[in-house]
Amino acid sequence: MVKVGIIGLGKMGLSHYSIINAHEDVEVVGVCDSSGYVLDVLNKYTGVDTFSDFEKMLDVQGVEAAVISTPSKLHAPMVRACLERGIHVFCEKPFCLKPEDSAALADLARSKSLVTQVGYHNRFVGAFGEAKRLLDLGTLGRVTHVLAEAYGPVVLKPKGSTWRSKKDEGGGALYDYAAHPLDLLTWYFGRPESVSGTVLGHVFSSETEDEVYTTIDWGHGMSGQLSVSWSDESQRKMTTKITIWGTHGRINVDRQECQVYLRDDAAVPAGYEKGWNVHYTTGLTQEVDFYLRGEEYSAQLDAWIKRIEKVEVDGVGNFDDATVTDELLAAIARGGSGEVQHIVSGASVDVPPVPSGWWRRMKLRLKSRRSARTMRRA
Amino acid sequence: MDRLLFGDNQFFGVNHMSEEKARAQAMRFQSVDAVMSVLDSAYDCGVTTFMCTTHDRIAEVTQRMREQPERYADQVFYPCMPYAHKYANAMADAGVIGAIRQFLPDEGFFDAAMRGGKSLAKKDIEGVTTLLIDAEMKMFEGLKTPVIFLQNVVVDLLLGLGFVDAFRIFADHVKARYGAEPGFITMNLPKLLDALDKVGVDNPIVCANINKIGFRMCGGLDAYVDVLANRPFRPIAMSVYASGAIRPDEAIEWVTSLPNLEAIVFGASSRTNIESTVKLVASAWPLSVT
């Protein structure tokens, strides 16, 4: 049994808690949130041990692995506090707002052989996984261009009361929405060289962007475009779609289906033929032991738990992977003027260590209190 | 309970196979007239139970039916609540408590303040839960709702959390207030039956994916077949075609051969499709339909 602590009980936190609590290899030993009401109700009706101080929970409950679903700006200090205690971490996306933090934490986790993962659930969607498999097989030949899109109905009027509407807390369509298609791009094609022509457009929000458009360059004759809006009411819920053009064909992929067009010169994989092929989610999805809201949410936590049991540091969506996505996100965030922004590997950047001991604990405690009012998680 | 129940996914752009098909359906059923026309076809084929989400647009359907009581004399609704996306979006926007406050009813404010306010303060979920149920049920006023379902996203969230008392609270309230049978939709049938046993909800109506290929049947096909044969509950099968992955005749032949299955819920966008499903099912099950 893996002893898990849950940090943050907003929308994503509750969902992760429910899924992992149903996992047969997991014992949830404590939950932590800034809302006393949510904690009291959970304790009263489920009997779970509840905490308002996450470090206290980590120290007294024997937590071996933590699920962090707090506002994005809290990820870095909370992840660090876990890793320093030798605790495996599953962190909601985006990983860290500063890529230097991401790289430092990925290094720290690796040095301690801790199993990490970031909640990029699309990597566990059958159709997106099939596209990855075909790309790795080289089925499309040389890829020349990719279009990554995500649209959904999140901000449909000028208002906003939570951390999601605050730029410095990781709010905005870039970190909240564009992170998903961008993570698929770094999974499929690795770290790009630069971004340019970035538009961070406002539709309804005053402080944060509602639209993200940018051109991405991988530097070997391969380009990409990103088109994202979270102010699109025509969508029932978030839809993410990737279109890939190569010398041997084309792939259109979303959560439901993987459509593949193969030219005559393509090496056709088993189960495919020349021309159009359509593979649906029903055929591409692996069944899960407990279903809440899409197999991918269960599959990603199950993959993390299984890796912890085998102490497998490498794995899909670990901190190393998420660091590359954070570097791309940061370059787009810097590029609001439209100028070229080069993407550098954050691994080479030296980060001053977070102070340890009494002062660090005080600072983190103050920080978590300050954000308590806004702490409603994804 | 009728053996064939009509579902509503097709009306709201829900399609588990394709975003393009989902969008085409959303366009086609943009007007209530288009929805009514398909519901009329179902009704005229003898499929008079509509199992529907408490989506805002259903209020337009129920209003039309209230206006023509003779035309829809046999119409029965099985409301499924809540329509989860509105809560999910509100939670991202306003947090858990903010979202709940947002959906507490405006009318009967004092009642709401008493039941909801007191229970919010006492950390007692009973008052808030019953208020939210009443708010969702408003659109069915004056219509027949003999079974009221809790949607799978809520059932399975509570199931995972171990928050199983909520099932009893829901069951007690829909029985007492609406004289209805409680129903539960789930993707985790065997596990849910254990939880309902634990809180004393006896012989529950449970709707789950039941299809030949085991699509979204958590616990596995064998475990589902086993509980169907051996556990006391009233099963309704949904997703019998597994979103189109199984041929209709094959799907229906398999599902109607299962022991103890009480009903099948299906969606269709045209009279032809409704008729062919009715015909297929009628060849295996005696249906009192035209």
Automatic annotation (TrEMBL), chain A:
Residues 130-251 form the GFO/IDH/MocA-like oxidoreductase domain. Transmembrane segments: none annotated. Residues 2-120 form the Gfo/Idh/MocA-like oxidoreductase N-terminal domain. Signal peptide: none annotated. GO terms for molecular function: nucleotide binding. Gene3D superfamilies: Dihydrodipicolinate Reductase, domain 2, NAD(P)-binding Rossmann-like Domain. This is Predicted dehydrogenase.
UniProtKB/TrEMBL annotation, chain B:
It comes from the Bacteria. This is Uncharacterized protein. The lineage of its organism: Bacteria, Bacillati, Actinomycetota, Actinomycetes, Propionibacteriales.
